[in-house]
Amino acid sequence: MESNELDLVAVRLVRERTYYNDKPLDSPEAVVDFIHKELSAYDREVMCVLNLSTKCDVINMNFVSMGSINAAVISMRELFKASILSNAAAIICCHNHPSGNTCPSKEDIKLTERIALSGKLLGIDLLDHIIIGKEDKPYLSMKEEGIIPPGGIELLKRELDKEHRKRWERSF
């Protein structure tokens, strides 16, 4: 008779390097002042997430993806992993456009909607998604531009219903 062994898994947050900031990150401008130098230096798209407490204090920052010159693959699983481990109540997403053009693409807007919906499901609010450009147009805040969806429960239900139907149809 074989014995069934079950591995016990421990999940922990591992801290890496530290970025220093002496100002609160309480506005899109403050976030951009803090992260612009880092993100604008990359020659490819990079996405990071600022994890926030219930008081909107920044707990930590997580680099989620490094892509190509005009795209990055973002998995909701990877995007929210550090947020969950950090007990974040909310997040601010930031990514760069190496071209310097801060105009969001259709993919950027769809991604932002998916992040907001996924966050609602997890209980982690998306406060903003900021696109970092170059010096002449340093950023675009999707919150300020009205692009961040309100994320009501009806919208979430419709999206979940669509996904359920897709899975159901693929199973045959």
From TrEMBL:
Superkingdom of the organism of origin: Bacteria
UniProt keyword annotations, A-Z: Hydrolase, Metal-binding, Metalloprotease, Protease, Zinc
Classification via InterPro entries: MPN, RadC_JAB, UPF0758, UPF0758_CS
PROSITE patterns named among the record's database cross-references: MPN, UPF0758
Domain MPN: 24-148
Family annotation (Pfam families): RadC
Family: Belongs to the UPF0758 family.
PANTHER family per record: DNA REPAIR PROTEIN RADC (PTHR30471), UPF0758 PROTEIN YEES-RELATED (PTHR30471:SF3)
Protein's name according to its UniProt entry: JAB domain-containing protein
Classification of source organism: Bacteria, Bacillati, Bacillota, Clostridia, Lachnospirales
